[in-house]
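Data card: per-record layout.
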Amino acid sequence: MIPSGPVLETSPPAFVMPPGSCDTHAHIFGPGSEFPFDEGHPFSKDPFDASEEMLSAMHAAIGADRCVIVHGRPHGFDLSVTLAALKKKPDRYRAVVLVNPGDESIDFQRLHDAGVRGVRFNTKGATPDLERIGGLLERVAPFGWHVLLHMDNKQIIEFQDFLKSIPVPIVFDHMLRIEPREGLDQVPLAKLKEFLDGGNAYVKLSAFERNSHAPYPYGDILPIASDLMAYAPERCLWATDWPHNYFGTEQPPEDNQMDGPPNDGPIADLIPLFATKSEAQQRLLVGNPAELYGF
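The structure for this 295-residue chain is written out next.
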């Protein structure tokens, strides 16, 4: 089992990010002494701290000026750790949160004022309650939020009618967990492009190591990222997925030869391999995040 947790010393990348660059997907865990972990989540069995201070140090090393904090499942529906980070750097941080769709007491205006811009659902390996999800999205639509969906790649086909009915923009997480061995002509990738064509969806080019069957620089995933970037540069986002937590069934493929979480300096150095021109890099790292998250 590959250990989780942040690399403590981030290597500076050779790639120089443009000013205003945004890491659109990172988590903050703890410190557990201040922000307790959900005892019902597997993370609590072998927890580690990945604090805002550690996140900020990583971003300083790679040259990212902005970040979208994706509230992590180890903290459950208690948003305290995420809201504390937003308060600390309101100009640099936005957030996407986990909420209970059945909770009628949620103060969405308060969350919006704090810097929250979306909600996340993880349907990977699960049968989601689409009616409850749809009901929640109706409630957040007036705030201009989006929904971040972490899905099995085949679920974009299975749930396509529901996805087309969603009243907010959709962000498909981690390249829709596309299976690189199925190539560029696979149906899930074609369906993803259909949603990008609709002008109401984005895709995160992130977490390459979670799906790759090759060692760094994940040569089997790069053609997919390049294809998406060439197809819809105005619909692509980039992220580190720091601190690279692999709890439960979220282990990367064994054949990519990982022995620990990746260093985010080399992760940043992948960017010019699939976004080769400066205009594309500016769109990916600055323009698209600014538009979606309201920086």
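Known properties of this structure: Residues 22-293 form a domain with the TIM Barrel fold (CATH 3.20.20.140). Residues 68 and 94 are 5 Å apart (CA to CA).

See the next section for split statistics.
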